[in-house]
Amino acid sequence: MSVYDASAPLDRVLGGKSAGALNKAFGITTVGEFTRHYPRRYVARGELTDMNTLVDGDAVTILAEVVSVTTRPMQQRRGTIVEVVISDGVAKLSLTFFNQRWREGMFRPGRRGLFAGEVSSYRGKRQLAHPTFEFFPEDVEEDPDRIAMFAGAFIPVYPATASVSSLQIARAMSVVLDTLGDIPEPLPAFVIADHDLMDHRAALLAIHRPVSEEEIEAARLRLKFEEAFLLQTVLAQRRAEIAHLPARARVEHDGPLIREFEARLPFTLTPGQLAVGEDIARDLAGDHPMHRLLQGDVGSGKTLVALRAMLSVVDSGGQAALLAPTEVLAAQHFRSIKNLLGEMAEGGMLGGHDQGTQVALVTGSMKVAQRRKDLLKIISGDAGIVVGTHALLTDTVQFRDLGLVVVDEQHRFGVEQRAALSAKAVDGTRPHVLVMTATPIPRTVAMTVFGDLDISTLEGLPEGRAGVTTHVVSMKEKPAHVDRAWERVREEVAAGHRAFIVCPRIGDDGTDEDLLEADLEAVDDESTKSPLASVLETAEYLASGPLAGLRIGILHGRMSSDEKDAAMGAFASVDADPGIDVLVSTTVIEVGVDVPMATVMVVLDADRFGISQLHQLRGRVGRGNLPGLCLLMTNAPVGSPARKRLNAVASTTDGFELARLDLEQRREGDVLGASQSGHRTSLKLLQVVSDIGIIELARTAATTLVEINPTLSEYPHLIAALADFVAEDQAEFMEKA
Q1: 131 within 8 A of 95, measured Cβ to Cβ
Q2: How many domains does the chain divide into?
Q3: Given a cut of 70, is residue 184 above it in pLDDT?
Q4: What is the CATH number of the domain that holds 76?
Q5: What angle, 0 to 180 degrees and rounded to 10, lies between the N-to-C axes of helices 302-315 and 271-284?
Q6: Over the stretch 453-483, which tens digit does the pLDDT of each residue have?
Q7: End-to-end alpha-carbon separation of the chain, Å?
């Protein structure tokens, strides 16, 4: 018997035509990838599909019985139409074949089979045009391949496309399964025994050719556990590697800079900030690099915690770098840190404080003269705190003693980028690393996507925050509420406050490229029918219409760095001349932007944004002691999934609860980042939201194994499976850690 080779090209088994179709439809190129294309459901052999559940546009595979077949000439042109009526015993559906009269004899009333295609409607009747189909064998004399496909009690229905049906996948899978041979077992024997799991070969056969519901469940459990175990083993190895890397201890967490800074703060640190600060201080004092994730709800004070950690490192004689994903956010952090430090940000300069340091900013669009000046501050060590974008990763940026890397919005940076910054440390040591996320992470996701990090959760909000009230404004159903929304904006501006208007598009030319700054949730077809609001068109409309007379500015990602700084400065400062009352922006202001005078936000086409993103956006208002108001404008109808998302955002300001709801509503690929990256996720069956029990068991088993055998030298099949697991996903979701 041959040995199964997961890396074998699929065309070697199926031939070029079938393999090419699967590659085009699903990106599948190897035997292993194809066998992991698991059924999404099963059709019980004796049960007909309920046709009342079919929806136009769906690619479906249904089990039904032929009722009748007729052939008639086409009315508008030459040729014939073969129409087959199939039924589930209650509802009916037509199969139509154009100019294929020879098919008439294939459909005998009473025959049962599977019919696959895209549901559409013609003259009020639902139909499948030119579907693929397979009849159940009526006796053993029929095609043996069909007998093999339908021999079991359960018929698999695979994720399919309009070009490759579930039936075609099933036929191809049958060919591949017949060539499996001996399959190497990736899981250690003690893991299989401890958790009473099926072996790998039995699980593959059972999930594709099940004979009972119990067999399906056992196969799914085994394959889910395998996915969780492979992921947790990679994370356990990474934790072990980090634990053995050298780092310089930064023990002056109560040094003169920290003491002076805290003495100057106009408020008291929250218990949560103090507790997380102790976690970080303890890590910084170690001789192995800290690798910690700091998460907290919107406005919980993560940046302040990170700044205390940076000052602690500067107190110890080192430097700290804060890496931000955009120039707007980097500039905001730079301004915020300088404002918090005051004269302490001018250490060694005329008028600077004795207990101080300098703060440098490095971005890609800086003017050459300023860039040279800041680079000199960094390499000399005069700048203890350095804020920047990807520009910090270039070879021209050299540190005297980089002790701490703080990564904001960590999901926008990959492992290689963080490693490039970490490599700038001296003496062969590694800097401590603190990554921050503004999106609260449920424990299930933290254990999978961030499993190699120590996690600190910042609880509570600083005192004095007035909070935000959120309302959904229906533009179609209650246009008077739209008028009232603009009146509220005028009232806030008249009181000396500021207003954000958020749009999903920039609006230069109306093309899809304008969507680049919004993480749009294109999940509801009712929200995609009308043009989306754009910054440029909205600013013009407001200036000549409902907000005429107010000072209106714009902000978006295509503006130059100087233009962005000027817009934010005019919006944030009371004394700016000319100032901006209303800032019309894309989601470039989603995180990090801190304007205490901003009290109202209007989000246009709010149904096109995800729950977590809306929560982040509204966190830009109500940040001071003034109450905030967020108005979510939408054309989505009542009862639609989009409106349910918006109602959820309006119902609570608990970011952790919203994150849980967000994960429940989104596809698994979205959770792991696959839909944004275009890569397939290696997690085919495991659901990080609901399979917490499996994940916990796999994490314990993987940690135990890596502690016993860090190199996994006794498990060559596991090593091969890990390489395949990570390579298939391009390490995309792993880079989030």
Answers
A1: yes
A2: 3
A3: yes
A4: 2.40.50.140
A5: 40
A6: 788 888 777 766 667 999 999 988 888 999 9
A7: 41
